[in-house]
Amino acid sequence: MATNDRLVESWDGRDYERHSSHQRAWGSGLMAELSPRGDERILDLGYGDGSLTRQLAERVPRGSVLGIDAAAEMLEAARDKCAPNMAVQQLDITQLAFEAEFDVVFSNAALHWVHDHAAVLHKIHRALRPGGVLLAQFGCDGNCPNLLACLQGQMAIPPFPEALAGFQWPWFFPALPAYEALLRALPFVEWRAWIEHRDQRFPGADAIVGWIDNPCLIPFVQALPADLRKPFRDAVVEAMLSRTRQLDGSHLEPFRRMDVWARKAKPRERMGESQFVNRSGLLQGQWQETMHRR
To answer: Which pLDDT does position 59 carry in this prediction?
Structure first.
């Protein structure tokens, strides 16, 4: 792949699949937090290319999995992976309207595309059956600093400030203390949140450019007039290659991920005072974890 010959202007499930192996690996690791009986009903928020949704379906052979994603372009790639107990549909996460339907709500690398987490977490709580759990991982404070610097730097260079006037920044990367405060205000009976350092070494320019193009640049490219899309894309790519290049020819970008596990109260389970445990140690670099019980 020539790094300057691409311009991805819309979501593409198959292209995303080629360039998101690191995120699938993290999602598979997150899935290890689950211990399903095998008959659960699971909701996957932001199924992407459908690979992790398929893994979830295989873990509940007597249950079922529904995956949702806002991008219609992702449907084809995900449908090709559907198991008999798996379905996918186009639905924006912010439009959840399920009532006590799922034992597990799972989400990997999707919720940082949602700005109002308070509203979405309330909808997730409503979608869970009593005793059901949320397990999610998403970008947080400190995620992809080189990418953000290159994007913001290019957005400040004419003619892009005028062309992107009114553009909404696509990601929400919360800090752990702020997210703890948010979880504390929600009706989950028990929850924990922790940070993982997932620095990613891309083996070469093609690998990191594939990830930059899809999904990172798509919201910016779509917001620009046609004649400015390729110049903006090429400038960001060149800046990123320069900032992340290592002596061995690889490219290194720091990733920071927040993992959240939360449980809805079982019938007749009373919510009392919050109990707090704080631990620190090592997990893929460094991690912080808090556990709260009500």
So the answer is: 97
